[in-house]
């Protein structure tokens, strides 16, 4: 083995390592299966002794997201993590953070719902993550990791995008990616930003004390004059159009000559990549389009495949059919779009997906 | 090379840690590796299983429709996974508590009486490494030196004093495994 820092780790453990290494200033969380290893690992790493990063167990998810809100308002690199029911509790806070145009990172290691549901893997929070969750016209930037390495990489990426657009970012993982162990290469340790660096990056808006500024910086989501609130909305919407224009990310596997396209993200995409291998062995030209960002959704490549004459799309998700709506919007009636899913914490295997694909699309 | 293994039994039998040793051994051999556990309530007294994939190229799915090898440690797991072994694959099981033996004729079947052997030796803690030794005898997918390195990696430093015992258990497992057909 080379000296490269290759480790075997669970996805949840890697989130903790990546947070410390990217110079995160603070983590505020509350335990819930299947993501509890995030805070457990942070407590083992004791980063307050090395980088000075704060790790705090709050008394509830409502508290942890509001601690994140407060930390974000001071320009700090702050995050939380939870699983589905806990993220529901955070939804009000996320809407406030988005409306206050503050950067932060939230990890949702999804489990089967609705309600308390199960603790097994699910992708039932696609709507919640991409279409709202909280109230009002806002978006989270949503990243969907499909490997333990991406769990690592998306912590840094999530923070970068959050600061670039002053908008909360979410890593939408699930119990399978969180609990699975794979090889991962850890990034070198970055120092936390100094206060000077923070002021250079965030001084125009962060509440760091008035100092020599002429005006105070105020972070708030409240604006009682409707005329002004509409202006704020318009500014946010312009930002979302910019994000949609610049930040869509996806991976195409064997799409070039494919007659049928599977669209799947996260752990489902991993399973479906094996389906593609099996289908190709049978001579069936199947490709996989894997959205890496769920918001912004990779509409253009799907549209292009539909225009090229793909015979059908199958949206494969661990839910009752959520992303399929965005696939249909992208395809715009140019080809049939079907959905296959399992719910409540049940998973499909590569053969199940192949059987469904044949049943629903291949005539 | 690609080997997809399911290890299944009761929670507490060392199913997940056996998979972890195998996964670490694969890392030592520079393989790509996935370790996908059942988790949660299944760990508390019920059944537990883990899928380990070792491959010399990128691993697509960590979840499999069928397995090259199955290591089975109780009747429920045998009932669940016997049909999921690929034709020509192998199934290894400990006869302890098995009332209905596997019936397939298109796979290789082995028994390893590790539970009984551990009881005889008075050391139940070596159960899972003994089973692992049996598997590695039948299917030497990783070199023994890498298994020992993997074992060391998967144990906390305070348990390293047990390494020689585990090494002996792995070796002994290779001796007591028997081919049924």
Structure explained in plain terms:
The complex is a heterodimer of chains A (363) and B (181). In chain A, helix 6 links the parallel strand 6 and strand 7 (168-174). Helix content of chain A is 42%, strand content 19%. Chain A contains 13 helices and 14 strands. A seven-stranded mixed β-sheet of chain A has the order 3-2-4-5-7-6-12, with helices on both faces. Chain A has a five-stranded mixed β-sheet with strand order 9-11-10-13-14, with helices on both faces. Chain A folds into two domains: 6-185, Rossmann fold (3-Layer(aba) Sandwich); 250-360, Rossmann fold (3-Layer(aba) Sandwich), CATH 3.40.50. Chain A is of the alpha/beta class and 363 residues long. Chain A has helices at residues 11-21, 37-45, 61-73, 84-99, 126-131, 148-165, 175-179, 195-202, 226-246, 266-281, 299-308, 323-331, 350-360; strands spanning 6-10, 26-29, 54-57, 78-82, 104-110, 141-143, 168-174, 181-185, 250-253, 260-263, 286-291, 293-295, 312-317, 337-341. In chain A, helix 1 packs across helix 6 and helix 10 packs across helix 13. Chain B has 181 residues and is α/β, with parallel strands linked by helices. Chain B has helices at residues 15-28, 75-81, 114-121, 127-138, 144-154, 163-176; strands at residues 2-10, 32-37, 47-55, 67-72, 85-93, 108-111, 178-179. In chain B, 49% of the residues are buried. Chains A and B meet through helix 7, strand 8, helix 10 and helix 13 of A and helix 1 and strand 2 of B.
């Amino acid at each position: 083995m080379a000296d490269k820092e290759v480790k075997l780790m669970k996805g949840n453990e890697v989130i903790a390592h990546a947070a410390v290494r990217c110079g995160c200033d603070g983590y505020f969380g509350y335990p819930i299966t299947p993501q509890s290893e995030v805070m457990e690992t942070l407590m083992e790493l004791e980063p307050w002794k090395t980088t000075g990063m704060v790790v705090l167990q709050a008394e509830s998810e409502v508290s942890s997201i509001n601690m994140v809100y407060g930390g974000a308002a001071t320009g700090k690199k702050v995050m939380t993590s939870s699983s589905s029911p806990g993220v529901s509790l955070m939804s009000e806070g996320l809407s406030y953070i988005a409306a206050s145009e503050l950067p932060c990172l939230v990890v949702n290691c999804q489990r089967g719902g609705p309600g308390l549901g199960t603790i097994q893997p699910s992708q039932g929070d696609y709507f919640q993550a991409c279409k709202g969750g909280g109230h009002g016209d806002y978006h989270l930037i949503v990243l969907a990791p499909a490997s333990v390495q991406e769990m690592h990489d998306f912590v840094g990426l999530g923070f970068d995008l959050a600061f670039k657009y002053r908008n909360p970012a979410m890593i939408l993982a699930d119990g399978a990616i969180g609990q699975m162990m794979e090889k991962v290469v850890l990034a070198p340790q970055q120092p936390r930003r100094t206060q000077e660096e923070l002021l250079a990056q965030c001084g125009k808006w962060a509440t760091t004390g008035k100092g020599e500024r002429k005006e105070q910086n105020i972070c708030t989501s409240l604006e009682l004059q409707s005329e002004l609130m509409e202006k704020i909305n318009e500014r946010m919407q312009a930002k979302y159009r910019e994000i949609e224009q610049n930040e869509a990310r996806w991976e195409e596997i064997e799409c070039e000559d494919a007659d049928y396209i599977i669209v799947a993200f996260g752990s489902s995409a991993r399973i479906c990549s094996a389906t593609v291998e099996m289908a190709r062995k049978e001579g069936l030209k199947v490709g996989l389009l894997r959205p890496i960002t769920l918001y912004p959704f990779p509409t253009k490549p799907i549209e292009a495949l539909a225009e090229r004459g793909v015979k059908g799309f199958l949206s494969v998700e661990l839910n009752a059919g959520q992303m399929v709506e965005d696939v249909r919007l992208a395809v715009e009636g140019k080809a049939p779009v079907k959905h296959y899913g399992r719910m409540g914490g049940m998973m499909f295997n590569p053969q199940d997906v192949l059987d469904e694909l044949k049943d629903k699309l291949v005539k | 090379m690609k080997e997809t293994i399911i290890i299944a039994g009761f929670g507490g039998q060392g199913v997940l840690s056996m998979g972890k040793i195998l996964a670490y051994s694969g890392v030592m051999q520079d393989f790509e590796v996935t370790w996908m556990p059942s988790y949660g309530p299944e760990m508390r007294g019920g059944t537990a299983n883990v899928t380990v994939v070792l491959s010399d190229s990128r691993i697509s799915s960590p979840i499999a429709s069928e397995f090259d090898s199955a290591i089975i440690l109780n009747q429920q797991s045998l009932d669940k996974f016997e049909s999921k072994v690929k034709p020509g694959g192998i199934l290894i099981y400990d006869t302890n508590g098995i009332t209905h033996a596997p019936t397939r004729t298109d796979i290789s079947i082995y028994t390893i009486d590790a539970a009984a052997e551990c009881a005889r030796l008075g050391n139940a803690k070596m159960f899972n490494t003994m089973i692992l030794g049996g598997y590695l005898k039948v299917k030497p997918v990783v070199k023994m030196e890498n298994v020992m390195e993997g074992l060391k990696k998967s144990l906390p430093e305070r348990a390293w004093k047990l390494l020689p015992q585990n090494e002996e258990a792995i070796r002994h497992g290779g001796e007591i495994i028997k081919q049924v057909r």
